[in-house]
Amino acid sequence: MLWQTFYSLLLLSLLFRCTGDESLPEVTDYEEAPMDKREREALYSAIQGFVGDSWNGSDLYPDPCGWTPIQGVSCDIYNDLWYVTDLSLGLVHENSLACSSSLEIRPQLFELKHLRSLSFFNCFISPIVIEKEEWVNFASKLESLEFRSNPGLIGKLPETIGNLTKLKSLVVLENGFNGELPTSICNVKSLKRMVLAGNLFTGMIPNCFKGLKKLLILDLSWNSLSGTLPSSVGDLVSLLKLDLSNNLVEGNLPQELGSLKNLTLLDLRNNRLSGGLSNNIEKIQSLTELVLSGNPISEDIMGIKWEKMGNLVILDLSSMGLRGEIPIGLTKLKRLRFLGLNNNKLTGLVPSEQLEALPCLGSLYINGNNLTGELGFSRKFYEKIGRRFKASKNPNLCQPFEMVMSESHKHLLPLGVKPCT
Ligand SMILES: *[C@@H]1O[C@H](CO)[C@@H](O)[C@H](O)[C@H]1NC(C)=O
Ligand SMILES: *[C@@H]1O[C@H](CO)[C@@H](O)[C@H](O)[C@H]1NC(C)=O
Ligand SMILES: *[C@@H]1O[C@H](CO)[C@@H](O)[C@H](O)[C@H]1NC(C)=O
Ligand SMILES: *[C@@H]1O[C@H](CO)[C@@H](O)[C@H](O)[C@H]1NC(C)=O
Q: According to the UniProt entry, where is the signal peptide (predicted)?
């Protein structure tokens, strides 16, 4: 019975073969999930290039889009045939396609014409410069391209990435890429996420953002980008998150930042920004996180209308050379959870009661300034905030009295603040 079924199936498939249209791609002869043979060979060869010659795809995975799936490979049907749509290489899971130390990017990779998502995680370890020509083969389909934690990827980012006009997500995170950013990335008008963080990019931030109206996330942090923040960032009208932290960006914040009406995160920490913030920063009223620490701004922060930024949850203004008193406007920010004002040149009294009245405040750093007078926080405040309050290194600041505190909470009194006499 079983044999009969087998033979009739075989016969059937042979019949199909003989009557098939010659112009159709050659397909393998099981009933479901037929795959274009060239596509399958290209997949095997491309993967073998990455994982090494001992990996034999046709042996191990005769039906890669069907009953012998390959970890990291997904497929979809186009014109009744299976094609590869997603390919991830490198160590993601235990049984994922781990890359060989002597890998090669074979041309067959670029024959996978329906590929929508390609990612490499922890794959390129030995130094390799990726050629730019072949990427244009992916121009009409690729929506997501990711290189994550590949220290061996060196040289410039191929400018042909700018030809991938369907790309929605470009993640180039923690690799060894260097040189200038290609301005061609601004041609990718479909981009929603551009993460180029943690590489060795140098040169200016390109002033070419005009077309990127759909971009939601721009993260260029942890590189060595220099020059000023270009005015065309103001054209990124959809932007939610802008992270340029840990670079060498200098000069003023451009007025145009004020046009980013949906921006929730602005992280510019550890750069060389030196121009003032006044009349600029307060225009971005959508911000929930503003981190400007570690920039030589050296401004009197009394000039900023902080009370306008009522959505702020995190505000880090530490190590900026800020002068003036703690602006009372800051104590109007009812959503504030984190306030960092440490290591500046702030003077005057601490508005303790108003700060304590902020309902969500869970971290407050005012250490390393030249604040004066008595701290006026209650015992309850110290019990709540614990060591997330610091006021030390203000030589003229004092703690008014040995508060009545339970023994177990005594240690919560701020360290390094002398008692008032
Ligand atoms: C895979 O193994 C088959 C035999 O099982 C062999 O014919 C084929 O040449 C091998 N392919 C590669 C690429 O090593
Ligand atoms: C890639 O994009 C550049 C710049 O837009 C263009 O000049 C070039 O012709 C494109 N290449 C291909 C193969 O489409
Ligand atoms: C800003 O966000 C709102 C609400 O999420 C949305 O309706 C609007 O289209 C966004 N604006 C832009 C320019 O993307
Ligand atoms: C701190 O402020 C006091 C006045 O309150 C002033 O005499 C002193 O010079 C200031 N110290 C520093 C280091 O600026």
A: 1-20
CA 350 to CA 389: how far, in whole Å? 13
Model pLDDT, residue 86: 97
367-405 pLDDT, tens digit each: 999 999 999 999 899 989 989 999 999 999 999 866 555
Domain range holding 45? 25-84+98-113
- Ligand closest to the CA atom of residue 53: 1
Closest residue CA from atom 4 of ligand 1 = 59
Same domain, 60 and 187: no
Cα–Cα dist 350/178, whole Å:
46
Q: Do 223 and 139 have their domain in common?
A: yes
The atom of ligand 4 lying closest to the CA of 372 is 5
Q: CATH number of the domain at 209, please.
A: 3.80.10.10
Question: pLDDT tens for residues 198-235?
Answer: 999 999 999 999 999 999 999 999 999 999 999 999 99
167's tokens: 């790309």
As separate numbers, helices (DSSP H) first and strands (DSSP E) second, the chain gives 6, 23
Cβ–Cβ < 8 Å for 149, 171: no
Determine if ligand 3 sits within 6 Å of the CB of residue 238.
Answer: yes
Q: CB neighbours of 33 closer than 8 A, spacing ≥ 6?
A: 63, 65, 66, 67, 82
Residue 27 confidence (pLDDT): 55
> Last residue of a domain, which of 277, 297, 317?
297
Whether residues 269 and 310 share a domain: the answer is: no
pLDDT digits (tens, 9 = 90+) for 148-180: 999 999 999 999 999 999 999 999 999 999 999
Pairing of strands 248-251, 370-374: unpaired
Residue 12 within a domain = no
User: Do 47 and 102 have their domain in common?
Assistant: yes
Can you give the pTM of this predicted structure?
Answer: 0.89
Residue pair 116/141 in contact by the 8 Å Cβ criterion = yes
Q: Which residues pair with 84 in a beta bridge?
A: 75
Please check whether residues 374 and 274 belong to one and the same domain. no
Number of domains in the chain: 3
For residue 150 the two structure tokens come to 């590949």
| Centre of ligand 2 from the C-alpha of residue 163, in Å | 6
Q: Are 175 and 234 part of one and the same domain? A: yes
Q: Last residue of some domain: 282, 297, 312?
A: 297
In-domain check, residue 5: no
Ligand 4 lined by 370 (C-beta under 6 Å):
yes
